[in-house]
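Dear colleague,

Following up on Tuesday's group meeting, I ran the structure prediction for the two-component complex that the binding team flagged. I've pasted the input sequences exactly as they went in, so you can double-check that nothing got truncated or mislabelled along the way. The structure tokens for the whole assembly follow below. Feel free to forward this to whoever is handling the docking comparison.

Inputs:
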Amino acid sequence: MRGLAILCAAGFMSLATPCVAQTTAYAPGQGSPNSIVLSVPVTASINNHCGFATGAAPSGTYTQPDFDSSGLNHDFNFTLDCTLPMRVGVVSSNGGLQASAGTLPSGYVSFAPYNVTLNLQGDVASANATCAASTLTTGSTCSTFLGPASTTQGLKLNGASNSAPGSYLRVTAPAYPGPDVLVAATYSDTLVVTLSASP
Amino acid sequence: MKVGLLTAALVAATIGLAGAASAQTTTGTVNVVGTVGEKCTVTGGDSTTAFSDTFDALELADTDGTLRTIAPFSTSGSGWRVHCTTIPDVSITASAMTTAGTAPSGYANTVNYTAYADFNLVAGSDQTISTPTTVGSDGPHTLNAHLQNVNDNVVIRAESFATPNVGDILMTGSYSGQIVVTITP
């Protein structure tokens, strides 16, 4: 008769909990029970995370020559990697395209408005909103996605986005309508995009 | 043989510990840059870069055949508005009104005049450039300031019409000349 040795089977776990004898199995004819069933639940999970996909945060520079006559139209694509509902906010440094042109006479300007559209694409859900850049300066009035993002502020994507394609930050403007004249110069603005989990 | 059994009541450390994401935010930054080049355009003209007008002096001769008194001509009220993104350079050329053929002594087939271009500026008084058709051109000159951003900020005029010699009798024909004002950003 051969005895059956059952050892503590927890090699894949790192816990140092000591194994404790709880019952005894007997060889056939030597008693009962003759076997013991060990049940070891094996489960796991991935911690929630929320951010831009690696290497796919909004970034880059869009340069448009003669935007006063051609307007603006450009998408900054990015990828969300967030296992929870989230919010994304945008803050504009200048609230429009601003040039350093000093004091200008009446009828001439060195500031041009444009619009910002934020599109968030989740695995299932999506969200989209547009605000004038002038309403995206810190503390301004864009009610949908003025940043910085927090659990309560910013455009909400009500679902996860596991690197779903299709999210973008779009800047647009028609040809400058006047009647003021934009002086010859280089104009610029910086948009800071922040993302926060918003369970 | 009795064998002691050990049970394993272990729980993986990660099981059931799927915590919420922290409140940290992640950030991306993009830059939007646009340029406005040095350029001039016009509204109310023939195109975005050209404007024109025609002055018809009608009959040039008086009853005795000499040049009659011709009132000054001006484009004021035309509604042109020149938009320049910088302070421009300006110049003017003008050619006399002439008709074909050769004029014998005591006769003329040419009517001279003096052409002007007045520029309404944002600072100071208007700036004027001019040239007699006997000279033909003036400029380029850089304006002293930006053009006032209003209608009729550039006005072209002509006056002091005269034949080469006082008392010349004008030859029959159709007379034409041209004034060209060039505005360069």
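Residues 50-197 of chain A form one domain.

Cheers,
M.
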